[in-house]
Amino acid sequence: MPSTIKDVAARAGVSLATVSRYINGTGKLRPATAERVNAAIAELGFRPNAVGRSLSTSHTKSLGVVIPSLSNPVFSDAVSGINEAARAEGYRLMFTSTEYNRAEEVEAVSSLLEYRVDGLILTVADAEEAPALDLLEAAGVPYTLLYNQSGRSARPAVTIDNVAAGREVAQHLLALGHQRLGMVSGSFSASDRAMARRDGFTAEIVARGFPAPRVLEVDFVNSEVEEALVLLMRDRDTAPTALFCSNDLLAISVIGALERIGLNVPEDVSVLGFDGIAIGTHLHPTLTTVVQPSRDMGQTATRQLLACLQGGSDPDTMILPYRLQIGESVGPAAKPSPTGPSELNQTK
Amino acid sequence: MPSTIKDVAARAGVSLATVSRYINGTGKLRPATAERVNAAIAELGFRPNAVGRSLSTSHTKSLGVVIPSLSNPVFSDAVSGINEAARAEGYRLMFTSTEYNRAEEVEAVSSLLEYRVDGLILTVADAEEAPALDLLEAAGVPYTLLYNQSGRSARPAVTIDNVAAGREVAQHLLALGHQRLGMVSGSFSASDRAMARRDGFTAEIVARGFPAPRVLEVDFVNSEVEEALVLLMRDRDTAPTALFCSNDLLAISVIGALERIGLNVPEDVSVLGFDGIAIGTHLHPTLTTVVQPSRDMGQTATRQLLACLQGGSDPDTMILPYRLQIGESVGPAAKPSPTGPSELNQTK
DNA sequence: TTTAACAATGTAAACGTTTACATTCTGAGA
DNA sequence: TCTCAGAATGTAAACGTTTACATTGTTAAA
């Protein structure tokens, strides 16, 4: 059993309170007393017990982190940012993932509340309908959402304006002469962000007098992207000349699939992603994508949560800037092929 | 302040111990008593305090997880596996990353020891020289390494045989007629795995009577891959016809860079990766790579650590199987070009 | 009806640390 | 030298829960 503050006190010939004052730097100590305590700590290999401290102070100096998955680097990057900012303030992270499942969200929050984390940073499937957030609010535990659209629920979130980003994507593609646009997205029910991106994208296109984009909702994990694209791109004369993907992993997957069915990116079809994950700049073609500042978002969410925990105001919604990063995967609209039905149509 | 067991006891008209027995399912309770306790819990919105429980039982039911970075999906996948196995046993994860820095490793372990995590799962830069592991052993806290080579230190690890994998990569490439091999790796001082892969790769090539491979050690984050490759591939008659990369992110990066300098993969140069991250199967060309079972490794490490915590034997080294997954990024050795210095040589 | 054995429940101390309040020590000023 | 104010340190209870041991209740058998 590791040494406790009692052992240190006994060894140094002082009281528990004196050792506590030394460890925490609270209150003055005579140099000789401090030296004796320090020596006792070293001799005993004492290490403060955060559990005892948590009980007596009612603060654990830990933050709960709940995200859908670590498989998407956009969440990994954010957790890195959270970790940095938390560490800087002496906080630890208690972590869990939910695999986009609402019941898992509730279970995760429940458990973190049992561990008495001081606050939480989390991404839920839908900020509007989140029993997990209801639980947090009922418990009075501060939290900040990450990436979620705060929408009409006015729940505090660090995010970007996904609707505006979707619109800007549409503007960019239309400006390049693309008139037949498509979108490939993950599940809308699992991501209010994907919904917002689609909504902005579609609204802009329709407002500009173009036909609404074809929207493909795919299960990225189950690798049905290629099949879906074969159908979408079957008729080159009516197929989209540009595809907006709801995240970068999907965009990368779409590019691979397009090339496999004989289409060149961006010559035959342009592809535009979302998130700005690092690998996108190392590929060929490099990815044109909407970059959200994931690491900054993680840091910002953490800082404002910690500010709240340290007596500041409640967390609020913060919209950070995104930027459209031009890569090689988007080019001018392809000119119509001079021949009739495309070579693709003839492929078995 | 949330309700405590005292409040529940008062409300139900029973003792603290009775409420504790109800919560934990230890000891028998009359149905009427159980019902009164249950009603009191519901009325008060009581939620057990894991901090109090941890202090009195000396167990936190949490595991510390220390990994270099979440930026590489191989770690994210492993953490997903750890999370699954831990959750199944009612454990939480306390998480931190070290960015491949030994001082950070020590600080991370130190802090997790303060929080009294029951055990740790971690990846360190070098299992042979790890002050963080010295600290854990001195504290008597069980741990399992993940991915690290256990080598002569005999520290418990869940890993694969990286040396054997390196050899098998060499065999595979030599069997395809490649005679001039190269390796692109991340920093060896930050990854004993990368060292082991190089050692196996090199040993096999030399044993087969071929010249030792050219080894490029690059800083993937600082995007110097392309510059390095231009130099390596300058003279097509002497340049490697296949490159082994120490991880998949690097391999993907190398493919992009090769294509950008005008070389086709695998026609002009083959590229083989390591890890088996999911995105590798969605690219064009799909990645030929050594797949380690990251999620399984995470689960296995967790299970054996938990078995130890629950009275079983100490964690041991477990070597899980890897497999060489054939993709499209490796092909037969390119036949020498019929002309003199390559076009590449003339590019400014 | 009484007794005894077992079930059910209560009591109280401990886990490690913090900290309000109390006590002792020290040094400066009268 | 004495006194007083502030410095330094000690005391003890509390934080929430667990659990060994004690006590009370209940039921069946004699």
Automatic annotation (TrEMBL), chains A, B:
CDD domains: HTH_LacI
Ranges of residues in domain HTH lacI-type: 3-57
PROSITE patterns in the record: HTH_LACI_1 (PS00356), HTH_LACI_2 (PS50932)
Organism name: Sneathiella chinensis
Taxonomic classification: Bacteria, Pseudomonadati, Pseudomonadota, Alphaproteobacteria, Sneathiellales
Gene3D superfamilies in the record: 3.40.50.2300, lambda repressor-like DNA-binding domains
Signal peptide as annotated in the record: none
TM stretches of this protein: none
Protein name, as recorded: LacI family transcriptional regulator
Keywords: DNA-binding, Transcription, Transcription regulation
Pfam short name (any one): Peripla_BP_1
InterPro entries reported in the protein's UniProt record: HTH_LacI, Lambda_DNA-bd_dom_sf, Peripla_BP/Lac1_sug-bd_dom, Peripla_BP_I
